[in-house]
């Protein structure tokens, strides 16, 4: 097993999964950057090469190489070629822009998802809940990081921690200042071997990455005066840490859509799901039914109406994505059938 890949997360299980590729003379590598279809892969922590992917035609967007993937590389003289992607342990997927139903892979084989939320402006809890759903659905463990704690007072931090914990039941929430290094030791203890940093634009993700890496590995930029973030990171990038393990920095997002994430919604809103188990009726809509534990919790102040509305909105998105996926699958099947039929007629093998 290549010992120089261990700092990147390579282990015995990956080696076993790679055995057939190794027998074919291919090399293992980890995808470090994907930018407009161009790949950069790590053959070891200090060695990266540019590569192109030659995979099966028609592969879904989610199946294309993503940052964090372990891949098989054919080191040809005219440039490295990725010929295979090892089965993923986890995958962070967001819905694609527009009305398309396919997902967009953000990072693969991640243990921990750090969700950066800036303390310098009021947190949008519904957006935080969306990041949490995407994080839970990936199979990784989400951690909420309230960044820039040095620019607000202690009372504001306490209020922000309380609100974030309400939106993230069962999730570790930390207040951190990457500038003063306050809270960074606790954050280092919370991350896994592979950690993705996600969040809205201007959340201080790149500064956070620099603090964890102990060096200026990512460019940083001040937040605009109107409070909106600047896009410092333009592509997802894997950064090896000096002490071992890797970080994956991602571009800032104005918003994030959930994609086929029913399990993620259930985990993000585990408090509502638990309350629903106590409702008198199994098909309770949590509106006007008698014996509804959810509306009782709202009346008692234990649950906010805002959180229930956010829960319902995410469920509607998941339902819509499911219908779109089913419709797209039917359309693709009909197209393949039409092509096969036309091909058969052209060669005297039409269906009779």
Notes on the structure:
It is found in: Cytoplasm. InterPro entries: G_CP_dom (IPR030378), P-loop_NTPase (IPR027417), Ribosome_biogen_GTPase_RsgA (IPR004881), RsgA_GTPase_dom (IPR010914). Monomer. Associates with 30S ribosomal subunit, binds 16S rRNA. The protein is of the alpha/beta class and 352 residues long. The chain is 34% helix and 23% strand. Among the domains are: 3-85, Beta Barrel (OB fold (Dihydrolipoamide Acetyltransferase, E2P)), CATH 2.40.50.140; 91-249, Rossmann fold (3-Layer(aba) Sandwich). The chain has helices at 12-23, 125-138, 154-167, 184-190, 205-213, 262-268, 270-276, 293-300, 305-346; strands spanning 27-35, 38-44, 47-53, 70-76, 79-85, 91-95, 103-108, 112-118, 141-147, 172-175, 194-199, 236-240, 246-249. It has a five-stranded mixed barrel. A two-stranded antiparallel ribbon has the order 6-7. The longest helix is centred in the C-terminal third of the chain and has 42 residues, at 305-346. The radius of gyration is 23 Å and the shape is globular.
Structure in a nutshell:
The protein is an alpha/beta fold and 352 residues long. The protein has nine helices and 13 strands. Helices cover 34% and strands 23% of the residues.
Task: Give the helix/strand layout.
Layout: H1 12-23, E1 27-35, E2 38-44, E3 47-53, E4 70-76, E5 79-85, E6 91-95, E7 103-108, E8 112-118, H2 125-138, E9 141-147, H3 154-167, E10 172-175, H4 184-190, E11 194-199, H5 205-213, E12 236-240, E13 246-249, H6 262-268, H7 270-276, H8 293-300, H9 305-346
Parallel strand pairs: 3-5, 8-9, 8-11, 9-10, 11-13
Antiparallel strand pairs: 1-2, 1-4, 1-12, 2-3, 4-5, 6-7, 12-13
Helix pairs in contact: 2-6, 6-7
């Amino acid at each position: 097993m290549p010992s120089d890949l261990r700092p990147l997360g390579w282990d015995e299980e990956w080696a076993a999964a790679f055995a057939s590729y190794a027998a074919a003379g291919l090399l293992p590598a980890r995808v470090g950057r994907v930018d407009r279809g161009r790949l950069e892969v790590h053959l070891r922590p200090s060695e990266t090469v540019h590569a192109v992917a030659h995979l099966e035609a028609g592969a879904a967007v989610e199946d294309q190489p993503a940052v964090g993937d372990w891949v098989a590389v054919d080191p040809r003289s005219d440039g490295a070629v990725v010929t295979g992607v090892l089965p993923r342990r986890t995958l962070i997927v967001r819905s694609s822009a527009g009305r398309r139903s396919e997902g967009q892979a953000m990072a693969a084989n991640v243990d921990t998802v750090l969700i950066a939320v800036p303390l310098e402006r009021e947190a949008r809890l519904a957006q935080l809940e969306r990041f949490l759903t995407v994080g839970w659905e990936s199979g990784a463990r989400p951690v909420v990081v309230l960044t820039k704690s040095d620019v607000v007072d202690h009372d504001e931090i306490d209020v922000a921690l309380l609100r974030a914990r309400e939106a993230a039941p069962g999730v570790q929430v930390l207040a951190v200042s990457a500038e003063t290094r306050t809270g960074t030791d606790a954050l280092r203890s919370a991350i896994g071997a592979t950690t993705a940093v996600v969040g809205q634009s201007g959340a201080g993700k790149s500064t956070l990455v620099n603090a964890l890496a102990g060096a200026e590995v990512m460019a940083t930029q001040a937040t605009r005066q109107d409070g909106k973030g600047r896009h410092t990171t333009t592509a997802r990038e894997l950064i090896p840490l000096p002490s071992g393990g890797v970080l994956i920095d991602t571009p800032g997002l104005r918003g994030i859509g959930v994609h086929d994430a029913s399990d993620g919604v259930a985990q993000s809103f585990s408090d509502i799901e638990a309350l629903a188990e106590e409702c008198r009726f199994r098909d309770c809509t949590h509106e006007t039914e008698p014996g509804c534990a959810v509306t009782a919790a709202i009346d008692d102040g234990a649950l906010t109406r805002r959180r229930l509305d956010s829960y319902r909105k995410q469920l509607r998105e998941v339902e819509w994505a499911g219908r779109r996926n089913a419709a797209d699958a039917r359309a693709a099947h009909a197209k393949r059938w039409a092509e096969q039929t036309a091909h058969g007629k052209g060669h005297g093998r039409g269906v009779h």
